């Protein structure tokens, strides 16, 4: 079971609101909604908004006719293809029916809106049937314990597969059953195609710009300096043209924007890095880490210079510095200047502790 299932359902029941799920393609929104219905309701019934009957009944505000009873969760998938479904679903909820809608554009009110991200590694271990290993990782992280050598080796191997498959439920399950790299490549192509469809609407010029920015993310991250550079988008590409596009992609939950900080309180939005929500697309260590940190609700930034820090994780007035590729020299400089309670340093080695520097392997990022 994914962590989000129980949280979303409990909030929905408490606030007496229907659920609206959104997020990048292939993150398991439909599966999550159906699983929630089966776990917390009397089951689930699925309807596609491509169905002509759904469109007709939604237009007449009669969606309740498709819901067998008030215990069952009704899932309506593809709200962007049926203009009336959100209004009609809200009516059903007011009548006491349990409803979940899946779509791109978030409704302004009347729903509990939840973005669905790729699985973090702890959830992915559950997919593998390794729940006990996930609990062991949490224990080692919280207690600053070393992971037994055999378990460390196994977790490192599983994490490499997790990175390769992007934390996507379907891709992970298919790869684990076949161990076929061809399946991963096919799913990567499917994901990119689905994103291109999402980005191609409205003005043609703006659609082309969206796709150009999005498609450039992996190459930008592979540079020695992964700072996003507009001039790599093509001749004549300028911030004045593409800044709005970057903001739109972030608002659509397709990229994570990570701005430069000159110090912990001075943000410089003119310099930033972009990560894909799904690491199947960006396919890099830093991207997988960014996706997991963002999914936990952290606003991400970074520092350059002698106190370089790959990620500054802001939440509730606190900041957690996270080092991925920066040197131990930079980490110690950061510690000396800012005196944090703790710096998380991610290395392929086992758990360790040196003063305020907490070393963890990549497979423990979900614990931060």
Task: Order the strands across the largest sheet as they lie in space.
Answer: 7-6-8-9-10-11-13-12
Q: What characteristic shape results from the CA principal axes?
A: globular
The count of β-strands is 13
Q: Which percent range describes the beta-strand content? A: 15-25%
Number of domains as seen in the coordinates: 2
SS content category? alpha/beta
Q: How many helices does DSSP assign? A: 14
In short:
This protein has 368 residues and is α/β, with parallel strands linked by helices. It has 14 helices and 13 strands. 45% of the residues lie in helices and 20% in strands.
Model description:
The protein is 45% helix and 20% strand. It is built from 14 helices and 13 strands. With 368 residues, it is α/β, with parallel strands linked by helices. The chain folds into two domains: 3-115, P-loop containing nucleotide triphosphate hydrolases (Rossmann fold, 3-Layer(aba) Sandwich); 121-367, no CATH class. The longest helix has 19 residues, at 181-199. It has an eight-stranded mixed beta sheet. The radius of gyration is 22 Å and the shape is globular. The model has no long low-confidence stretch (mean pLDDT 91).
Which labels suit this protein?
368 residues; alpha/beta; Rossmann fold; 8-stranded mixed sheet; 5-stranded parallel sheet; globular
């Amino acid at each position: 079971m994914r962590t989000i299932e129980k949280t979303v359902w409990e909030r929905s029941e408490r606030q007496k609101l229907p659920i609206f799920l959104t997020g990048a393609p292939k993150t398991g929104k439909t599966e999550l909604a159906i699983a929630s219905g089966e776990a917390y309701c009397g089951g689930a019934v699925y309807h596609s908004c491509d169905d002509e009957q759904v469109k007709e009944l939604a237009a007449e505000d009669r969606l309740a006719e498709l819901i067998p009873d008030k215990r069952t969760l009704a899932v309506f998938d593809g709200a962007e293809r049926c203009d009336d479904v959100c209004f009609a679903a809200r009516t059903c909820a007011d009548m006491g029916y349990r409803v979940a809608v899946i779509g791109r554009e978030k409704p302004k009110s009347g729903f509990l809106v939840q973005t669905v991200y790729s699985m973090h590694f702890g959830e992915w271990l559950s997919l593998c049937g390794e729940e006990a290993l996930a609990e062991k990782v949490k224990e080692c992280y919280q207690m600053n314990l070393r992971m037994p050598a055999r378990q460390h080796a196994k977790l490192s191997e599983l994490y490499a597969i997790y990175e390769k498959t992007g934390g996507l439920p379907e891709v992970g399950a298919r790869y684990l059953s076949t161990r076929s790299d061809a399946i991963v490549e096919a799913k990567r192509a499917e994901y990119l195609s689905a994103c291109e469809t999402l980005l191609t609407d409205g003005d043609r010029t703006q659609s082309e710009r969206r796709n150009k920015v999005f498609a450039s993310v992996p190459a930008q991250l592979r540079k020695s300096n992964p700072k996003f550079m507009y001039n790599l988008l093509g001749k004549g590409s300028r911030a004045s043209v593409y800044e709005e596009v970057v903001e739109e992609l972030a608002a659509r939950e397709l990229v994570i924007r990570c701005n430069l900080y000159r110090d912990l309180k001075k943000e410089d939005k003119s310099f930033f890095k972009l990560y894909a929500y799904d690491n199947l697309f960006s396919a890099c260590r830093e991207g997988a880490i960014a996706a997991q940190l963002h999914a936990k609700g952290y606003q991400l930034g970074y520092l350059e210079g002698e106190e370089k820090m790959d990620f500054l994780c802001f939440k509730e007035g606190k900041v957690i510095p996270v080092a991925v590729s920066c040197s131990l020299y930079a980490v110690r400089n950061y510690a000396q200047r800012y005196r944090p309670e703790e710096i998380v340093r991610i290395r392929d080695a086992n758990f360790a502790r040196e003063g305020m520097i907490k070393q963890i392997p990549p497979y423990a990022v979900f614990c931060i």
